[in-house]
Amino acid sequence: MSSAFTRRHLFRLGGATLVVAAGTGLGLPALAAGTVTVDLVVYGATSAGIMAAVQMRRLGGTAVIVEPGRHVGGLTTGGLGYTDSGTSAAIGGLAGEFYRRVYARYQGTPVTPDSPMRLVFEPHVAAGIFDDLLTEHAVPVYLDAPLATVERAGDRITGLVTAHGQLFTGPMFVDATYEGDLMAAAGVSYTVGREANTAYGETINGVQLRGEHQFTLPVDPYVLPGDPASGLLPGISAAPVARNGTGDDRIQAYNFRMCLTRAADRVPFPRPAGYDPADYELLLRYVQAGYTGPFFTTQSVGGGKTDSNNTGAFSTDFIAANHAYPTASRAQRDSLTADHLTYQQGLMWFLANDPRLPASVRAGTAAWGLAADEFTATGNWPPQLYVREARRMVSAYVMTERDCRGTVRAADSVGLASYTMDSHNCQRVVVNGLVKNEGDVQVGVPGPYPVSYRSVVPAAGQCANLFVPVCLSATHIAYGSIRMEPVFMILAQSAATAAKLALDTGVPVQQVDVAALQARLRRDGQILSWPPTVDGEIVADNRSAGVTRAGVWVGSTAIGGYWGSDYEHDGNTGKGVNRLRFTPSLPTAGSWTVHLRWTADPNRAGNVPVDVVHGGGVTTRVVDQRTSGGQWVSLGTYQFPAGTAGSVLIRTEGTDGYVVADAARFVPA
Q1: Do residue 120 and residue 62 come from a single domain?
Q2: What is the pLDDT of residues 457-467, one digit of tens each?
Q3: What is the DSSP letter of 619?
Q4: Residue 182 CA to chain centroid, in angstroms?
Q5: For residue 636, is it within any domain?
Q6: Which regions of the chain are under pLDDT 70?
Q7: What is the pLDDT of residue 1?
Q8: What's the total number of domains in the chain?
Q9: CA proximity to 212, closest of 388, 477, 401, 424
């Protein structure tokens, strides 16, 4: 548990109370009793669980979070600080507020509705922000409280009983775990593994032998090279590979998202108990074949630290070691988690110390270490295993590849997803006498797409008062796109809002008035459609009819956060020649607030001149396109005549990097 969590009710049911702070709104006697009754019982203190409880409190209800382990915040506080966001502008509501709070925390400024979002952060910063949210909204969190049984009356959950005998009751429940344990215990339908492509008319589900995160050099899989009778090296399956698109019960690999640093006080990678260099013989052979790395990612999150993830053919993912995890007992999961810990710590020790590796590999790895001020309660190692998928509910609406690609669009949207359809490898196999990885898929989506309300509630008749915003109803490959922390937060807020509506109107969750739900979500800042709109706004996209260009502009989708189908850039050439003008057709004369949008990157220009042509003349603003990407950045409010006399001109003279033209927005003031 992060030391940042110090200012609210944190109860450990398996031992002593950790912290007791006043102000939960429930009162200490109620919390100390054998039964706790609230409007919303949330199982799982993940980022989703926190947002569900906070939203219920904002709506005037009571909520409690019951966490089976000791970690609060899930992957968001567990090392995943380089947020997988897709189109960041599609993040609204409480999730957007969380990332604005991150920005404000780093800037030392108050958070406002107009604060930019910051989607990269150190783990302790995320923990502190969740702590603030839980404290501000007086949400108690029970730790060490694994689910033992679920009490039901008809098709409703009436209570959640923990292994220590504590009973949590209420009219509404949310399963916010990565594993879907409450959902399963409540008798809700679910699946594990990969569907065949034929099941839902998909193309990249099931077995996928592809080129991503693949061995790019020939590596022998046998204990004695060239001798199949000697057996296979650790982690390689002897089973023949099924044809692409075949369904099975395999899931994508897990790992830990390490927070690394090169700082002088870094903690050297530990040699774990049970370390066996034979587990990395395959990697050694890959290096001896000529592979030079990288062996793990080093994405910066600030403070000289990283969010380090899997990369390449042999890295931090413990491929195929997790297949039993989704439906395993708590003791079995603890054992599997320990296996992952031994594997990944052993990998880092191997890379930094094994004398058979080139000195450059050892030195390059040993230059990194664990951040000394992160995860201090767990030896500076992340306490949260990255459970990329486990159970997935099967409900009235199953999100599929077609939703991700935008060929179908759910009308009952309760939030947007936008990340690549992303599955890590599921198994390591032998093909033509060489080792190969199988299961990795990295296929982009054309833009943000809606997630159906029906996909976060059970099918009618199965459970009338449960929401499942994390292990929602989706195929393996669609879940690979949806399964991102911002989306979990978005769907959890929407689930809590629906829970309050169901509670107030006395209907099962399947009968919530979706139009009323969506209206409330929009008032609370959720973005339910793409492109998002403001009443009366006019957006001029780079592909709109009212756009004129001078010079050469290059279309691109390389950096996410753009409006519409793509954005354009000047190629960092033709300075002063390349220009692009957005000319809207304004329906009425009056005051209009003008916004500009771009995708940010360090290679962008920090001094882009932008001319706003309005009724009073021309006003020039200078924008920094290295920051604030994927957002509407205000250029001010001006008087405009009706029609097409007004415009926004992006110029390139004197600019010190790539200049991007994406979209301009005009909002009636």
Answers
A1: yes
A2: 999 999 999 99
A3: E
A4: 21
A5: yes
A6: 1-33, 533-535
A7: 39
A8: 2
A9: 424
